[in-house]
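hey m, so remember when u said the tokens were messed up on ur end? i reran from scratch. heres the input so u can diff it against urs
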Amino acid sequence: MKIFRILLLLALLFLYRIGFSQQKSFRIHTLVFYNFENLFDTINDPHTDDDEWTPMGSQRWTSKKYHQKLENLARVLIETGKPENSNSPTFIGCSEIENRGVLEDLVLQPKMVLQDYGIIHFDSPDKRGIDVALLFQKKYFLPTSYANIPLYIYKKEVEIQELVTPSEDSDQSEAVTTYDNRVFTRDQLLVTGFLDGEEINIIVNHWPSRSGGEKKSSPFREAAGMLNRKIIDSLQKINPDAKVITLGDLNDGPFNNSIKKALGAKAKKQDVPEFGIYNPFEEMAKKGLGTIAFRDSWDIFDQIMVTQSLIKNDFSTYQYWKAGIFNKSYLIQNSGQYKGYPKRHSATEVGFSDHFPVYIYLIKEAK
């Protein structure tokens, strides 16, 4: 009986080792989007409307506050995506940045400097001078091309279209010219390159605001969605298997026309057609989750979507794994009128942002 027990134990140990050796391992990369909310330096730029974000401006924006903001953002960025991925994000899409200089200061923060992030940035025609950009870890991603693609929209367009979404106030603004009514907003940033030798396309967005109300401004964001779709179509025409990730602060939730109709995003993988787009944040919105709060109502303005080529079951190449909203307790206001909201800058405290960051993972079977 003793010999039988020993043999049985050895057999079980052998089977366990076989099972363990057959477990697959994966390479994993985190991709983050974060609206930095007014990441301005302290220097007055005479060409943009940044006066409030100077030492003499209404925000009393000092060098001390600026560097605290950078430290706060660096903490969030390095922690987003953990513990599933112990490495810091490979890609960081960002919006509401004043210029390249603030990004250079950010990537040199002690928490980020060792990751050796590269920067892709263009100045946009936005009145306040706020732009979008992409940060990437140089050891994993090699960019081969990048371009800022302008969005041409005009004020007269909102006066002649029938709209179906409910109105909502906004404290944001866009610049409108007096000579042709063009609304100057952020460009869409397209970056193409190789992630561990595999081609990936990333579009970084900050779509037009809800200035004037959600209903009146909806056509602006629908135009942004159509431009986004046009960029993706162009990439897929060149390469039918193109892997495209579009991300940003869209100033619309997953159910709005700009995303559901103009971009054609689907909530379920099985509903995504060939060349279609999958939006994992729609299911989160149905559960009541959010990245931004307004009048005690939550919505998911910050989203990351992927093309059908990234939701296949063949993990011999990089594929989408899962998504999330990074809403740790230290990012949440714990008192006052905005208790429970994202902890933004105030007169007494340098916060983080009025948005929570969002992220996805890309994985590939390791050989």
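this time it looks ok to me. Helices lie at 2-21, 63-79, 100-107, 214-238, 257-263, 281-286. if urs says something different then somethings off w ur setup not the seq
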